[in-house]
Amino acid sequence: MNVKVFDVIIVGGGTAGCVLASRLSTREDLQILLLEAGTDRNHDEKVTTPLLSRRMFGDPNYDWCSESSPQKGMDGRVFQHIRGKMLGGRSGINSHSLVFPNKAMHEAWAEISGDDGWDWKNVKSYYRAFQTEQTRGFSEEGPHNEGPIQASFPRELDVLQKAWEDVFDNLGSKSVCDGPSGDALGGFTTTNAIDGQPGQGVRSFAGNAYLEPALNRKNLVVISGAEVERIVLEHDSHNDEGRLRAVGVIYEKAQTSFLVRAKKDVIVCAGAVGSPKILEQSGIGNKEILEPLGIQCLVNLPGVGENLQDHLNFGPSVEVRTDIETMDALIRDPKVAAAQRAEYDTKRTGPLAEGGAYSFAHWPLQLFNSESEEAALRELLQ
């Protein structure tokens, strides 16, 4: 068998994998291999047209269609876990919104984790570095920063977005539109990962913003449609402790298995669901789970595949006056939908060029809950 050898093998071409491949391949002395089980959809109109993102949810061509187990706290209901099946991963299928935490949240994370790498002073520069923030209306001030991801505000606030900011302004919380400043509190309008420059109006994500510009580098090889079966582990001859070292991977493409080896590192970044699956198939995980399934446990790590915590997401529906223009006509009236499609195809403007959500709020629950409701919530969370 002709076994190809690289310096670094990246397993998973999602958001993190594309960024890693782009950054590491700037080192001309490194040969990089990126393996992705999905396909290249950097120029697929469902991916690039901002308002079409929800059409990909649950579509097996774009989404791995993962589901949760029945949730006891939700009356046994099962929920979708959206995962992008493409180069760029979830960043190519999400709803674009860039909602940044404020300083206090980061300080709390650092305190809880005991790792000051999460505090605000250590992360704030990265929030700036990954994006180019385009100003409202493309004023003469120009964009902020020069990162690969293009981030834009809506071209103009509609009446409901404006009302959202007014509500919180009237409550004494001034809107902050500069999310990476760390001052986000109250209601605010945020950017979406969309290139909103004239003539563009397309999704900006890890696939087209980070990976695509790097594809012409001779030291980067990208293989899509390659599903990794397991990591190859061998005893490290450079230490006397009998530790195992990842030296390669076995992947399947077109019903054929291939072995590739790594001189330096194997980096697994296949997502919150995909990474533990690959680790367990490789013999890294809970011995009591793996061995009954016929998988030899090479590294007994009971935490692998456990403790995934997703966050709740729900959208309330509110009736508005008949004189308030909403997106309902775009959904219900074929003539309106056709006209908006034509506008997008010819000018790259209109609702199809905008993201799904720009209006958000960081607002303490204590301002809404009574003392009894607060006590009940704390008891539920404990």
TrEMBL record:
Belongs to the GMC oxidoreductase family. SUPFAM superfamilies: FAD/NAD(P)-binding domain. PANTHER family: CHOLINE DEHYDROGENASE, MITOCHONDRIAL, GLUCOSE-METHANOL-CHOLINE GMC OXIDOREDUCTASE. It comes from Colletotrichum kahawae. Its cofactor is FAD. The keyword Flavoprotein applies. Keywords: FAD, Flavoprotein. Pfam families: GMC_oxred_N. PROSITE patterns: GMC_OXRED_2, PROKAR_LIPOPROTEIN. InterPro entries: FAD/NAD-bd_sf, GMC_OxRdtase, GMC_OxRdtase_N. GO terms for molecular function: flavin adenine dinucleotide binding; oxidoreductase activity, acting on CH-OH group of donors. The keyword Lyase does not apply. Residues 271-285 form the Glucose-methanol-choline oxidoreductase N-terminal domain. This is Choline dehydrogenase.
